[in-house]
Amino acid sequence: MTGPGELSGVLGVDSGGSGLRAVLAVEGGREGRGTAVPLKSEEPVRTGPRGIDAGHLMEQLVPMARQLMADAGITTLRAVTVGAAGYTSLGNALRADLPSALARELGVRRLALAADGVTAYVGALGQRPGAVVAAGTGLIAIGTDLTRWRRADGWGHLLGDNGSGAWIGRAGLDAALRAHDGRSGGSARLLARGEVMFGPAGTWPGQLYPRPDRPAMLASFAPEVAACADGDPVAVDILAEAARHIADAARAVCPAGGEVFGEVQVALTGGLFKMGDPLLVPLRAALTDRLPYARQVPAAGDPLAGAVRIAVDLAEDRLTLPREEDMLYVIAETPAPEALAPGTPAP
Amino acid sequence: MTGPGELSGVLGVDSGGSGLRAVLAVEGGREGRGTAVPLKSEEPVRTGPRGIDAGHLMEQLVPMARQLMADAGITTLRAVTVGAAGYTSLGNALRADLPSALARELGVRRLALAADGVTAYVGALGQRPGAVVAAGTGLIAIGTDLTRWRRADGWGHLLGDNGSGAWIGRAGLDAALRAHDGRSGGSARLLARGEVMFGPAGTWPGQLYPRPDRPAMLASFAPEVAACADGDPVAVDILAEAARHIADAARAVCPAGGEVFGEVQVALTGGLFKMGDPLLVPLRAALTDRLPYARQVPAAGDPLAGAVRIAVDLAEDRLTLPREEDMLYVIAETPAPEALAPGTPAP
């Protein structure tokens, strides 16, 4: 579909709690062309009665995609990947509406829809077997043996997300209020930190419960817990328990290593791990304890990089990741001509 | 103020999450007259920008009070006690507006405003030193040495309420989802119970997070945890931890016993304790361990009975409980004539 002298590209999209990000990779990112600077929308894509709102997503995506294409001088999108938070349970409308909308508006015929955990996985580890923990305010673990996807946790701040920023922050505020009340297990240092951050303890419920973004407020206290880990045993215990929860989730999704798969890798991605050593030191130990056969590696890239990677591999007909409707859903109704031509790299 | 042949009474009011209850005690409940059947409103009193809405409370209370008075043939209310959930942090408007409104509408000159924890305390133990844990969806411990009030927890389902119905239910659902994911610490029995109650686990976040009454939904699972305690070690552990949290809160507010106060008592009140032995057996043990000097006694009555008791003692000038603006606030601008007359029982 790309004529002589025309440039093609692929588009990676990450739809999350703070908005939509989109980035273009020219010529599939080959030949040193790489990806342009991502564009970012102002608002998160809405969720309606049918799930994630495909129309609202398109409203944001189409002008961003057109601008990215114009800036790069690109006329053809060979593939698009949209990774979306909430996709697994709320992705029906995206599967129903996005393929035709993207074909109509942007001429896109190859499309992958993915859970944000899948794009996080691919961004971190690529098409290798292993486990990735993606954590910020929430937490989910995704793993694959390349035959199927496994996920653990990601249940939100009331049902799980154990070890996440919201979990650590909540545990820290609980310990602060124990000190306030004179109950056991309290931390006077966390109480002092909390009162600097939020004012007198008696005002905390009135600040927290009316907010729509309660998990974010809880998570905002997590760095204070990390800051107290240089000597406060309660803070140290909270982070050690978070580390055990995170390693538990990784173990639940990680394929067995050794003779079957050779090496498996485990990686961490997301804002939580910017907390540094107070969390990472106990976490590395917990991962070594629970996943002795997995090599701990740095995440190669973020979920947006994972979306681009899936789009590139889809365009090149070399996407070997497991396809499951609620994790990684692929539409390739009209194979691109070059995928069938001689000289195309084998999948 | 009561002429010959006229009957007087006192009014007790309990304003909580499920509405307003009011009950009348004729002649202060003396001489076998006792209290009438309480009336109950349809809706909880609203909370507005100024705190608990005094106007909305009066809208509900005045017709109920007039009906109770008419049914009992009572012309004079010697005292009223209003116990209200949220009073401690949200009671400003009640203190500002209720005294004049009650004087105008019902001729009431003696008024006590109390935190619902205080009415729960008085309902359970009366004017004795000790500690009371009031628990249902939430949990608070209130104690007094008769010189001041102490409270512990009651911070709500995200900051505390440890050991409450919401806490137990949430821990049970967390264990269910651990089993679902293959994480450690899971309970297949709790997962099966949860799926009977709420459907497939994958649908739980979509059911829970959009609801305004998330703590109530969490608490609705607590009885299932109790039902699994006949053999499921995860359920047993959850209830044992809840018991330790509850006993911790009681210890934080209980005055020391022994030489200073003689016997102190500890009582439990509220819907949580209808859960029975699966919670009560470990809880009695935890209380014995943490409060060996406190005698565990049954609660004599509920918070509404506590409100009546405070009103009776206020009318009779024998209220000896600590008065603190945000716990128990007393207005006695116009002492009733009989309180000053000879023959009145000494305070």
Automatic annotation (TrEMBL), chains A, B:
Transmembrane segments: none annotated. It comes from the Bacteria. Residues 11-275 form the ATPase BadF/BadG/BcrA/BcrD type domain. InterPro entries: ATPase_BadF, ATPase_NBD, Euk-type_GlcNAc_Kinase. Residues 32-52 are annotated as: Disordered. Coiled coil: none annotated. PANTHER family: N-ACETYL-D-GLUCOSAMINE KINASE. This is ATPase BadF/BadG/BcrA/BcrD type domain-containing protein. It comes from Streptomyces flaveus.
